[in-house]
Structure formats: C-alpha cells, structure tokens
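Hey,
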Amino acid sequence: MTNPTGENSISLLGSTGSVGRQTLDVAEHLGLRIRALSAGKSVKLLEEQARRFKPEVVAVYDENAARDLEARVRDLNVRVASGIDGLIEAACVDGAEVVVTASVGTIGLLPTLSAIRLGRRIALANKETLVCAGELVMKSAREHGCEIIPVDSEHSALYQCLCGEDSESVKKLILTASGGPFRGMRRAALMNATPEMALKHPNWNMGRKITIDSATLMNKGLEVMEATALFGISAERVDVVIHPESVVHSMVEYADSSVIAQLSEPDMRLPIQYAITYPQRVPSPTKALDFSKLSRLSFEKPDYDAFPCLELALRTAGVSGTARAVLNGANEAAVGRFLNGELGFYGIYDSVLAALEKIGNIESPSLDDIIEAGESAKEFVEKYRL
C-alpha cells in the first residue's frame, strides 16, 4: 500500500531485534522505503533484511561482523558501515523522515542525538536514551524542533492519553505492568529462578534483555525514568500498577479525578505505527479488541519485597545526575551475567545496588560524564562477586 501520511522513508536502528523486526512488518504494511538498517552483530539476519528491503546503508556495530556482512552483500548496491560512526551514519542517512531507534543499550544514545540535531522525527524504542540522558536529549529536541514519539507501549499510551490536554491539569501518570512470568510469586520461590523460567513472558514477544527486565520489574522502574524525561513530570507523580491482562497500556489521572486510558491488544506494531504516522491514524495489522471476550481487567500493587529492582529503580528515578546511567549500565551487565548463568536472580539486584553505592553521582553531568558513568557501572558489575 502507499503510505497515506506522506512519511515515505525511515531509518531503522536495531533492525534484527524484536521491535526492529516488527517495525519492518509495519513498514511493509505502510509501503515505506527503508533507507538504512543497523544491528549489533546479527549478520545472517541483517543480510536477509538488506536483500529484502534494499537500504542504502547497513551498519553493524561489531567491526568483525561488519567485515563479514560486507563480503556477503558485495553484489548489492549498499554501503556497509561499522562501529558507532556507522550507527550514526545510518541514523543520519539522507532522505529518512523518521528514525526508529530500536537498538538495545546505550549504543543507541549518540546515533539518536545525531538524528535529533538534524530535526528528524524520532520513533523512540531505545529506552536507555532517556533513562541515561533524558534532560540532555529533550533539551536538544526542543532546540532543533525535533519530535520524539515513544514506541514503548506504555509511553505511547501516555502520549495518546495526554494529546490535546492541558499539562497543568495532570495529577499523575499511571504505568501498567503485566507482572511478567513471576507475578504472584514470593521471594522465597524466586531464589532459584533460572533464565529459562524468566524468559517465558505470558503476554509479550520481546528480546531477551527486556524480557528479563520484565521478570525483575526493573523495566517498570526504567519506564518511570523515561516518563519523567519525556513528559516533564516528577517521579513522585508516576505510579506503577500490575495489570496482568496487558490490555490497558497506561493511564493518566487528571486534577478532576478523571482517568483516561489507552487500550489495545498487546501488539508492538500498534505503537510503532502510531509513532511513524502521528498525528494521523491509519489501519494497522493489529487485531482489534473484542470487548465481548474480555472477562476481566484486574489491577494490583507491585510486591516490592519479591521484586526489589523496581523499588531500587523508583528511588533512583528521583535522583538527578549520573545515578540513572549507573543503574542502567549496572543492570545491563547484571542481566547479561544472569543469562550466562553467572548470577542468580537476586544477584541482579545485589550487583546493581553495589554499583550505585560504589560509583559516585555527578550532578549536572555532561554527555561524556553520563557515558563514562554507565561504562564504569558495567565494568564494576562484570567483576562483581557476591
């Protein structure tokens, strides 16, 4: 189909991940031109995507993987770039009206900032960008007239619930959480939780890292940090509730006690498409809700004893400076060690807490301070022993 919105081409960072693959589904549905693709090191899938979508630039962060890909696609009219400079080139490729940032981790920060300086619309799925450097990113977006539209289902829901409303009338934002695979389980039962158990999310099809974050509920704390930056609201005015059905994606409570919610099937293609086509709404590949089959919508408070990562992240969300970058970097490394069998389930919390206590917080940090804090936290956790 021809894209009815007038937005005809995109650059996609993180095309081989779960959100990246679903973005390509949306792009085909909308008839979008793919100008650039990027990945960390998933060469085989990236080659398949390059052959299918014929981008002008394909970037691979890993230098060795980039050389492998270059040999594989010599018959294509495509430039292969590598490293962080390659990701920046992909983000800034000529002709892309929208940059979808779906890469995982802090490697998405510099490419996103580069695209912001060009005034491109950012369809933001890389949560680390706002978690670590929210104030700097949003300031740059204002200076360069750049739209940042969130792709996370919760922030997309908040964005939609806030449209056309007076920000002064907002009482609080309410982020919903599915509760992940361990909802309802107590701390004692989770002491021996394995990666295989944690990766069995009941509702969402996501990448491994974010699925573990959902199991610890760290993802919800990170989303509170995102929300404070994106919507200019304090952490104290952002609540988290467990909603196992994953139908209500988030809510906004206003001064008059009215609550506006966004509901849909749990399908990431809907917020992806919304971020690309906003302010227009066009038919999507997402199945419509059948209210006659919704037997219940339930809500409950989080269990902070069983899921201490959430409480730790919420405390950190109220701290300015580099603390958020430290938490984010430490968590990224800890999740990797958990997936490799080097840490237990609660070892994630223990190592992140230790990193926050060890690494000092820098007030009013520069971008270099933020990046260095995150890297220091990763290095600390890689060597951390219980």
